[in-house]
Design brief:
single chain; 226 residues; 3 helical TM bundles of succinate and fumarate reductases; 10 helices; 77% helix; SQR/QFR_C/D; transmembrane; Succinate dehydrogenase; membrane; transmembrane helix
Length: 226
Amino acid sequence: MNWFTKTFSSTVGRKIVMSITGLFLCSFLVVHLIGNLQLFKDDGGEAFNIYSHFMATNPIIRTMEIVLVLGFLFHIYDAIVLTRKNKAARPIGYADSRPQENSTWSSRNMGLLGTVILVFLIIHLWNFFVPARFGGLDGVVIENVEYDNLYLKVVQSFDIWWYVAIYVISMVALAYHLIHGFQSAFQSLGLDHKKYTPFIQKFGYAFSVIVCAGFAVIPLYFFFLK
């Protein structure tokens, strides 16, 4: 196990872990967005509340939540370690490196973008996940079955302008984070080829914009139209 520990504690190993956990979290974003699209159904929140109940009670989903949390923790921890290593290796930047010409804005500010996303995640989990899992939500009866009314919580939350602003700004930060991170993940995994890289870059860009725009439209929809 010594070689395993050394490999995945090295810079290359940590980048591989970052890449794998990052791509896994991308798959979670897709699933989460598809579920949240239930909010647009004009049924008073019935479909969304039933979906939320399923996600909260299904044993397979609950197990995957643990995997998801571990994915987040590994991703965040390795990001912090790699950032510190990079700063230690180059405590003073090159004066004439002209980073704006040699790299994208998002690649130079992944730490800032990640911090914005982490702060949003904490607020988001406290506002939605904690009440949904540990109580504090009103009940609603659907076809003679009582469910937690998470839909009402969504409506109330997205009626607050500053929460909507935080949500939308965080989705912009997430989009920039993904635009760089998606392609970088494939590169770290060795899947970098002049024939395929342009497609990966374009797909990553489209994925980042579409998914984050999908999330951002939800609070805007409730704030302005509901």
